[in-house]
Amino acid sequence: MLGDYPIKGRRASEIAADVEQGVSSGRLAPGTALPPLRDLAGELGVNPNTVAAAYRLLRDRGVIETAGRKGSRIRPRPATTPRDQIRMPVPPHARDLSNGNPDPAQLPDLTPALVAAAEAARRDPVRYGHPAADPGLLALAAEGFRADGLPSGPVAIASGSLDTIERILVTRLRPGDSVAVEDPGWGSLLDLLPALGLRAASVRLDDEGPLPDALARALEGGARAVVVTCRAQNPTGAALTAGRAQALRAVLAEHPGVLLIEDDHGHGIVDQPYHPLAGAGSEHWAVVRSAAKAYGPDLRLSYAVGDAETIGRVLGRQRLGAGWVSHLLQCTVAELWRTDAAPVARVAAAYRARRDALIGELAVRGIEAHGASGLNVWVPVPDETTVLGALVQRGWVAAPGARFRVDSPPGLRVTVAELDPADARRLADDLAAVLGTGGDVSRLI
Predict the structure, then answer these.
(1) Contact, 357 vs 421, CB < 8 A?
(2) Strands 199-206 and 95-96, how do they pair?
(3) Residue 312, Cβ density class (10 Å: 0-12 exposed, 13-18 middle, ≥19 buried)
(4) Cα 344 to the chain's mean position, in Å?
(5) Cα 38 → chain centroid
(6) Which one-letter DSSP state was computed for residue 245?
(7) I need a labelling partner for 13 at 20 to 30 A (CA). Which of 85, 134, 359, 396 fits?
(8) In Å, how far are 20, 60, 134, 195, 429 from 166, measured between CA atoms?
């Protein structure tokens, strides 16, 4: 069952740590079945309750999964092997289109805002006992949420979108619970779920967002939470339309107890209107936005609005851990909101032009591609490894779709943030040469 890897340990924590070491070293491969509780307890000379506790720890950490009478086995992609390790090396001659970063030329100069934040800190130093959130930032965030028609609610400040989503999930879910997620979807979120002991229920999508029937199946199957990307979906660029949002709200209204999380990380770099799902009847909900794409990934700051109970739990847990997000960052972001001269329309138009250039060039060559918003274009391919390897030889490195998929077909993600039209033509020519035949165009991703 375990081959030549003998599990060791006398305590639950020691047994769990030994299994994790086996996974990390590669000696316990994904899918490997673990011994039945009583068998392992007999081999180790410990109480079966000790092994049961070890297996529970491993499930909570996302290392193993249990399927009833089929027993426990190493997860197909355990939390100890994050998806971002699935990447192609970038040779010196190649262009890296795999990183998902915004174009530095589209980011504002942070110097004036940082100086203003430092001056504010000099006048009024933040010490223990200081309010966790900057009042100016809270007011600006709340104003933005209201302008987009969201229900009123308290606002929380955290360190990036994933940090906020993790805090929200932990407030409501327990290990073993299922979360409906887009497929293909954000690889970091797909890693986070098993790390929290949660299970992903995949929801297929097209250019307009998650498919209502697919979401309904996930919720009817017992998913206790759903995470939907409103715009700039990673990796496909999908953006909710008014019609799709209305259909999804109807599905959510049938499941008011499901936790709804809307990830609007593309706010500030997109020109598609925001169509909220919150307000459809979900008792517990949150909308998360981030400063990373508009102002730079190193500004580790996000902000969320939600129902009073959920946000209250997030803030309460934050006080016991991180305490607060640095006010230097908070004041910097608030100053950027007040003074940044680069309108969203200009930045969004630049990214739209780059997406459209690549999608258009690929379409001329009969190749399907998706990218309604954001920084990326998704290209379905028959075999990721073969296509990506051939592109590297021609000087292009894209992100393998395996980083973003659960059950959806193969593809590759191309970050177009710095791809000019001339480069788009060359990339399309090379991709057409690699694929050899035209794509079968379909709206379903």
Answers:
(1) yes
(2) unpaired
(3) middle
(4) 23
(5) 39
(6) H
(7) 85
(8) 22, 14, 22, 10, 41
User: How many other C-beta atoms can be found within 10 angstroms of the C-beta atom of residue 344?
Assistant: 14
On the question of a cis peptide bond just before residue 184, with omega within 30 degrees of 0, the verdict is yes
- The alpha carbon torsion through 345, 350, 355, 360 (nearest 10 deg) reads 100
372's tokens: 């309604």
Which H or E run includes 335? helix 327-339
Question: What is the β-pairing status of strands 399-400 and 411-415?
Answer: antiparallel
DSSP readout, 160-173? SHHHHHHHHHHHH-
* Helix, coil or strand: residue 110: coil
C-beta neighbour count of 300 within 10 angstroms? 17
pLDDT tens for the chain, residues 1 to 445: 555 788 999 999 889 888 888 887 778 888 888 988 888 989 899 999 999 999 888 887 778 887 766 788 888 766 655 666 666 688 888 999 999 999 999 999 999 999 999 999 999 999 999 999 999 999 999 999 999 999 999 999 999 999 999 999 999 998 778 999 999 999 999 999 988 878 899 999 999 999 999 999 999 999 999 999 999 999 999 999 999 999 999 999 999 999 999 999 999 999 999 999 998 889 999 999 999 999 999 999 999 999 999 999 999 999 999 999 999 999 999 999 998 766 788 999 999 999 999 999 999 999 999 999 999 999 999 999 999 999 999 999 999 999 999 899 999 999 999 999 889 999 999 999 999 854 443 445 7
Neighbours of 313 (CB within 10 A): 18
Residue 56 token pair: 């529970």
* Strand pairing report for 259-263 and 199-206: unpaired
Maximum CA extent, the chain: 69
Residue 99 · residue 401 · CB < 8 Å: no
Q: Which residues pair with 442 in a beta bridge?
A: none
Report the alpha-carbon distance of residue 149 to residue 433 in Å, rounded: 47
3-state SS assignment for residue 100: coil
- Please report where in the chains the tokens 């001269």 appear, as a residue: 341
